[in-house]
């Protein structure tokens, strides 16, 4: 049956890996080395019994060397050998496989293979064995009577066949056959009772079998596999395959002169055979009229156990109503590629098909596979130009609307699991589409022009693999992936134009129903930005391919995808990963040790701004795929390889070393020192500064005092009395009476003489400056008063800076023990 390559790739790869591992374990101690019999050849032991495999292919040998007697397999392929020396293989009875293809051998003599009594496989294809020129002597294969597989392709150009009577053990035969009349395999084949596989294909040899009749395979009734593809067959008469009751596989593909009507003769002959695989691809004329698959073409197959049916490239446009019901229940897969199907009355019959796999790709491809192969038929087909705009599948809008309006949805074979509609030139929007109850697991509609995905697509609960790649799609509705995509695992969306719509999906609604998907391919979509929540529901995602886009920054949420093992960001425009992106990846890598990211072919930079990113490359637990290929651009515009990121990081550190911290520290220290120094100076000379300030202020308001000589000054008062308010009784009742009234001394008292409106400090400074002396009434109240101490210090400053250190300050201790 047909398997989808994309879906089965991982399983196949795992299988191959196991096989290779097994072979490596078995043969790990056996390595290729020069052969003893010819230094240009390579030999290898294949078992503990010291038997050898010898490879002498492509060594320009002119003759067969004398071989060791323990060789089991020998390849002399692609040399210049023209003769097989008589008896050259005597003593090589262990040899089981011999390949002499692509040489210049022109004759096989009786003793050419003498000694090869156990030879099982012989390949003589692509030599110069011209049958009509006595290239084969009688009993040429006398000494290889145990031979099972013989290949004589690309030698003959006539219908002459060598005498194979001695090869009674032969099971598989590949030969050329060229005839312009009725093709007959005569009584020479009567003794080949074990022959089951005959390959006459023109793909690998020279084949021309113009006419096939009931006599063609008269002596080959036991065969099970028959390949007649590309044999320029023009007529197959009924009865040709009637005797081949054991036939399991028949291939008559690429015989374009047969016409599709010949299918009826073929199926009639096969109705009582053991046929499992029937291939009738490209048997209709390239320029022929569209065909109809009729009931008469296939109704005889109902009696067979057919498993696979291939009818690609036959210009089939419609299927006769009811015809599909005659296909056998054993049928599992059908290949109907490169036809011109249109929707018709036969569509409901699809439900009765027993197949599990259907390929109807390449609709209206104009036989692309045949552009270099045109046969000249005896009676040319009628030619017609088919209007491709009206005949391809789904372009008949009236039928499409009819099926869309069906209550139960689009008909699908009940057991169908795989369907392919690739490269079918479909050009339309995917509307709301309902499938009838089905078991679909794989759908591929890649390489079309399905430009808008509106949907929703419903009733696809079994679907696991969906390929919508290469469709020029630029618009996906948020309801396209309906909740019925519950089991989807693989989603291929590469090579579209989704970069126009995905950045607008800030809520992650497009993929919100794809909760179990494990692989999403969004490469080649011209994506510039991924919204933060685009993959918010994909908790089971394992592989995400965003390669070959135009992404500049990874700013979408990833840390919740704990099962992520592969993130492909190859060939984007990423210069560095943000701290957010690095944290997101590391949070996954700490849980999932297999997380791999590919950043190759990006615009990575290695400078001061990306220093953190380069350091991350060194220490991250994330596996960087092919890191040795990473290139980054340095600050000097040179390209540096990240093969050893530690060296790159050290270089960046040296280039980007900053003295900013040291400069800031030193500057701050110096400023603090200056502030402390200035503060100390200000504190040390605080009274002087205050005095100078107020003196300037006083003189500013009294310009006459600036020009008067200090010795000639006339003072307004004889003395300024500085006292505390608590001592005013003594000053006003005693001191004022004795000094001013009795002594004639003019005193300045702040309660009496300070000018209203001026601030206190200015009044004090002005009073001291305009008084000849200052009398301080010292008491405990005085010492506790701020303004009293201000007056005291201003008086000291006055005596020092204005009176040339004249003692103008008189202390009168009003209390004896005030301290």
Automatic annotation (TrEMBL):
Keywords noted in UniProt: Glycoprotein, Leucine-rich repeat, Membrane, Receptor, Repeat, Signal, Transmembrane, Transmembrane helix
Signal peptide as annotated in the record: 1-26
GO biological process, alphabetically ordered: immune response; toll-like receptor signaling pathway
Pfam family, one: LRR_8
One GO cellular component, as annotated: plasma membrane
Membrane topology: Single-pass type I membrane protein
Transmembrane segments: 662-685
Localization (cell): Membrane
Superkingdom classification of source: Eukaryota
Domain TIR as annotated: residue spans: 715-819
An MF annotation (GO) of this entry: transmembrane signaling receptor activity
Family the UniProt entry places it in: Belongs to the Toll-like receptor family.
Protein name per the record: TIR domain-containing protein
Organism of this sequence: Mytilus coruscus (Sea mussel)
